[in-house]
Amino acid sequence: MGIRRPNARVDLELANASPLRRDGIALAIFLALTLVMTNPLILRIANAVEDKQDALLNTWIIGWVGHALVTAPLNLFNANIFYPYPNALAFSESLLPQGLFALPFNLAFNNTILGYNLVLLASFFLAAYAMYLFIFDLTRSRGAAVVAGTIFAFNPYNLGNLAQVQLLSLGWLPLALLYLRKLLTDDGGRRSRTNFFSPRTIRNVFLFALFFSLQALSSFYFAFLAGFAVALYVIWWLITKRSEPRSPALIRVLISFVIVAIIVVPFFIPYLQVQRDLGFQRKIEESEPFSAMLKLYTEVSPQNVLYGNLLAPRPPINVGGYPLDNLFPGVVAVVLALVGVAATKNRERWFYFFLLALAFLLSLGPRLFLTPTLGTEITLPYRWLYDAAPLLRAFRAPVRFDALVMFALAALAGLGIHRLPSSLFRLPSSVALVLIALEYLALPAANITSVPTGDAIPPYVRWLAQQPPGTILELPMIASEPGAPLDLTTQYLSTYHWHPTPDGYSGFVPPLRGEIAYEMQSIPSERAISLLQALGVQYLIVHGDQPGAANDLQLAQQFGGDYVYRVAPRAQDASALTVRLYLPQPAAPSQSYFAYVIVQNRDARSFAIKPTDALHVDARWSDGTTQRVEATLPLVTTSVSVVPVRLTAPPRAGTDRLDLRVTGSATGEWNLSGDVAAQEGEPAHQIVLPARVALSAPLKSSYAPGDAVDINLTWQPLNKIDAYYSASVRVVDAQGNKIAQQDREPAGRTFLWTPEVAVPDQFALMLPRDLKPGECSIQVLMYQADQGIAALLLDGQNVPRETITLGTFSVK
So what's the pLDDT on residue 389? Predict the structure, then answer.
């Protein structure tokens, strides 16, 4: 197991002290490093964070966890954002241990910023001390343990992620591996039958399960990384202990994981439910920008004192609102790790070496990038792991495997510094500690972004805190200004009143939250107010300009530029809805097929629903095939909405009857039917748009050959159109032959059209000079050329038409 004796001045001081004082010196070192390496955060610990994006998101998460555990623990995951979606906490990390740690401070000081910053500082301290205990158990050298703890806790990767406290939470892993080692090596596996239930064994089983559970609950990412490291350690142990009894040890590990499952699984079920219900997952392509390019391992932040002028990227490259991670591990740490591999006799060094190499490869992502802009076609192991492990499909950032790289590097460095006194290179651990801290030191390390706390909390927030629980919405909504930095101040301020809101920001955003934000841009329109009423919003808070007068909005309070409106409730009337079914022809056997439900609202008021009010569609074909799918009705229907229903066509060619039973909690039940012709070959490529077109000025009754025909028309979008389409306006003779045509995007562009707002447009077509006398008509078609899709408009009776005839004239 290598030499186990103090090796330098720090070791000598610690060796002569009592056990409590020995750890006391290490704890004092880590506390000092925590305060210095995160400078100047300690000076603004109660009213500043790294930024107003992830730092405030994590402040909100930590605050919510404590609030829910005190007030309604069974509703822990039903957080107050993204109302009425359930399990909103599972849209990101749950940070349960961090929330428990911050809870007494939040309760005592009513300052969630203070609680968050204490969690952040404690994360560094915990990581350093946990690694210290782990390496001391491995080497019996406290100097080596202090060095390893410093590398693990204060490396550039950690210091570059001060806004993301979940990435600083790997401190439980060293403790979990410490007691895993004790579990596997207890009594050497030889007398384990007689001591199977000894107090020491029970303690090791419980502590491994506890620390692994704390790690898993601290971060969903790090739960996977911790499980990855533990699994590799068990495999390594099985390979290296082939000559010793292994069954008793494995039984102890199995019992530990049963305890882990009992603790952790209830907190992971909401994540599985969210992934099942909303389909949250990442495509492999999304991970490439968040992978560790090779060059990143040579870079530090511009604020790094020692290397900033040499190794900092210039200019910094931002991805997801943040600079790319700086992964330079430091010269001293690498040299010590090489000594640990080459000079020590401890067999565990090969496990840490293998873990470091594998974690490094996985951090590079699905394919090798030399620099952020210079990629290769070399496929890397992460691509295979992504395909094999479905959990990885919820992850976006392979670079986070660098946390395991630094863990393994710190362990090897601890072995290396422990070995140095008996080698040719004498480097006291105190000197190594100073050099490592200097390599990692940044001035400043933390950004100081002020946020309101205490007496600076806005008056409207304090007023809301005094109101009974009820749904609120603040405008402008989060991320509603394109190009503006993401600001989660309103979400953070909700920690002082905890009213539910349809707004919010998290690691994943539910699919219809954007539609709510889009509709709210038209406040105080009747559509927007109807949606507020459907959402059950009681108070609308408007920051900035006061909106115009509107029915069902009553000013309740004004606090400077913050206006609080009381929203009058109104029940939605589904009986005013009528539906028809449009079935494109033909379908292709066994291929994807879209049916369209056209929903018309006959009421003078818009019909609105909640984003969770899905339509459940039971489809039955005449050949006996049945399908059950879900469809989405737009949140607001003023006059007409179009609902696409994705089905699979029958397996055989021919004409089949399709019966649809459509049910929804807000809409009731609709029964629709029609015939679908299926044939081999290309199916119909059609999409139905919720839009009409009409002439805004009548055509002349007759034109002469060579005349210009000015066509003044009006596009009438009836709901949001989520793509860009082109229009073709044509002059057609009595036999259907095209005489003249003009193709272009309509005025205002379809994706930017506002529902129920008419868009005037003008086309000018020149009649041929040799045109013969006769009757001609004006026709309009829409299409998406790059997709080969015909876009059908609605006629006056809301029937989809591939061609809309606007009028006729004579050629004389």
Answer: 79
The helix (run of H) or strand (run of E) holding residue 661 is strand 654-664
Q: What is the pTM of this model?
A: 0.91
Distance CA 179, CA 137 (A): 10
- Between CA 154 and CA 151 the distance in angstroms is 6
Sheet harboring 668-678: ordered strands across? 626-631, 615-621, 654-664, 668-678
Instruction: Summarize pLDDT for 715-743 with one digit per residue, the tens.
Output: 999 999 999 999 999 999 999 999 999 99
The 8-class DSSP code of residue 786 comes to G
Classify the C-alpha dihedral 77-80-82-83 as positive or negative.
positive
Which among 439, 157, 479, 460 has a CA at the least distance from the CA of 322?
157
Asked if the peptide bond before residue 40 counts as cis, ω within 30 degrees of 0, the response is yes
Residues in contact with 578: Cβ distance below 8 Å, sequence separation at least 6, in sequence order: 599, 600, 602
Query: Alpha-carbon distance 32 to 42, whole Å?
Result: 11
Nearest to 282 by CA among 391, 360, 167: 391
Band of pLDDT at residue 209, cut at 50, 70 and 90? very high
Average pLDDT, the chain: 92
Contact 767, 699 (CB under 8 A): no
Contact by Cβ (8 Å): 461, 55: no
Distance in angstroms (rounded) separating the CA atoms of residues 776 and 732: 6
pLDDT over 90 at 332, yes or no: yes
pLDDT tens digits along 221-243: 899 999 999 999 999 999 887 65
Q: Give the bridge partners for 620, in sequence order.
A: 626, 659
